[in-house]
Design goal:
By secondary structure, the chain is an alpha+beta fold. The protein folds into two domains: 49 residues; 106 residues, Outer Surface Protein A, domain 3 (Alpha-Beta Complex). Helix content is 24%, strand content 36%. It is built from one helix and twelve strands. The strands form two sheets. A ten-stranded antiparallel sheet has the order 3-4-5-6-7-8-9-10-11-12, with no helix packed on it. It has a two-stranded antiparallel ribbon with strand order 1-2. β1 and β2 form a beta hairpin. The longest helix has 40 residues. The relative contact order is 0.06.
Length: 165
């Protein structure tokens, strides 16, 4: 065999080895792709009616959206440790539940303009109030330690009209 022919044969063997390696890598990639596509069908118990079910979901914030994609509420954990849940979007009536890391929990119902209309305070002296304008509580119920409860009624300007300790 001539040296030129030997060089051509050596180069041909090198190309054939490289071709085998490429075919093996392509086959491996194809198998991985098929496994990735087939995996949801292998475990159908985790998916019911097109909805995946998981045993654990972790996040700092969850948003609830309506059918149009607008935010309709959510739950979030603020940097200071406060947990806040809101049902209702901006420009609509909403309910707010706030659970601070330290301090009393609060529940409020707000108008379309964001004004607090109804509130419930879960402190050591729990209270409940109603407000027509979102500024002054027109009717308030509260407790006083060692004395029982009290009722406040105020007029539209915030002046006390009735107080029963």
């Amino acid at each position: 065999m001539t040296p030129e022919l030997q060089t051509v044969v050596d180069r041909l063997e090198l190309v054939e080895r490289q071709n085998r390696s490429l075919r093996l890598m392509a086959l491996l990639a194809l198998l991985i792709a098929v496994a990735a596509v087939a995996l949801p069908y292998v475990r159908p118990a985790a998916v019911e009616g097109g909805v995946a079910r998981f045993s654990l979901v972790e996040a700092n914030r969850f948003l609830l959206r309506d059918l149009n994609g607008s935010v309709a509420g959510g739950i979030e954990n603020l940097p200071d440790g406060t947990v806040r849940m809101v049902l209702g979007g901006r420009g609509s009536t909403s309910a707010h539940f706030v659970l601070p890391r330290s301090g009393p929990p609060q529940f409020t119902l707000r108008s379309n303009a964001g004004q607090v209309r109804v509130g419930l305070d879960g402190s050591d002296r729990p209270g409940f109030w109603l407000s027509q304008d979102g500024q002054y509580s027109q009717v308030a119920l509260g407790t006083i330690e060692g004395k029982g409860g009290e009722i406040w009624v105020r007029d539209a300007l915030g002046r006390p009209r009735f107080h029963a300790p």
